């Protein structure tokens, strides 16, 4: 992601995400669902478009609370599809709702989606992709890779000489503990 480390700092849309979120360890399932949703929404679009719509997505999906999103039905789906502030793609919206339901289904065995990630860590990218495809909707190599890099489960979010990289290392991300 060396290009991101070159272009994001100081950028009006990318800077904050690059400097304070991308690659830092995450364990909160609401944040993890949001990151998963952002990666799904970004498919086929630019990351900048996705970040510009992030606040509207957060509001539309009611803070990405897995319990709330998992309970969405046809009424909520139509509400989302009618919202001009978000990326309105029926397949992507359905996948986010389905994946929120999987977060709930994982709780009895793992406690949370974060617990599920921890229970399967470490895996290489190919292993993660296979596991995600078996368990979640709208997943592929790039979505899984970016989700796991953005949340500290896979390395590569920042160049080693990027100042943010040192701050991430100080938090001992899961990929470093592998």
Automatic annotation (TrEMBL):
Entry-linked PANTHER family: DNA-3-METHYLADENINE GLYCOSYLASE 1 (PTHR30037), DNA-3-METHYLADENINE GLYCOSYLASE I (PTHR30037:SF4)
UniProt superkingdom: Bacteria
A GO term, aspect molecular function: metal ion binding
Natural source organism: Oceanibaculum pacificum
Annotated positions binding Zn(2+): 5, 18
SUPFAM superfamilies according to UniProt: DNA-glycosylase (SSF48150)
Protein name, as recorded: DNA-3-methyladenine glycosylase
The keyword Zinc appears for this protein: yes
Record keywords, A-Z: Metal-binding, Zinc
Pfam families (UniProt xref): Adenine_glyco
Membrane found in the keyword field: no
GO term, biological process aspect, one: base-excision repair
């Amino acid at each position: 992601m060396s290009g991101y480390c070159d272009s994001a700092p100081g950028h009006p849309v990318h800077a904050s995400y690059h400097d304070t979120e991308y690659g830092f360890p995450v364990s909160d399932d609401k944040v993890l669902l949001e990151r998963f949703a952002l990666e799904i929404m970004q498919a086929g679009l630019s990351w900048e478009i996705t970040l510009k719509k992030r606040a509207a997505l957060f509001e539309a999906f009611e803070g990405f609370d897995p319990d709330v999103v998992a309970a969405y039905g046809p009424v909520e789906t139509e509400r989302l599809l009618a919202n001009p502030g978000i990326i309105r793609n029926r397949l992507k919206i359905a996948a986010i709702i389905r994946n929120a339901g999987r977060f709930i289904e994982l709780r009895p065995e793992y406690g949370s989606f974060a617990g599920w990630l921890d229970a399967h860590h470490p895996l290489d990218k190919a292993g993660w992709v296979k596991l995600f495809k078996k368990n979640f909707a709208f997943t592929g190599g790039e979505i899984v890779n970016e989700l796991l890099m953005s949340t500290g489960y896979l390395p590569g979010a920042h160049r080693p000489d990027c100042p943010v990289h040192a701050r991430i290392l100080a938090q001992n991300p899961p990929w470093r503990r592998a």
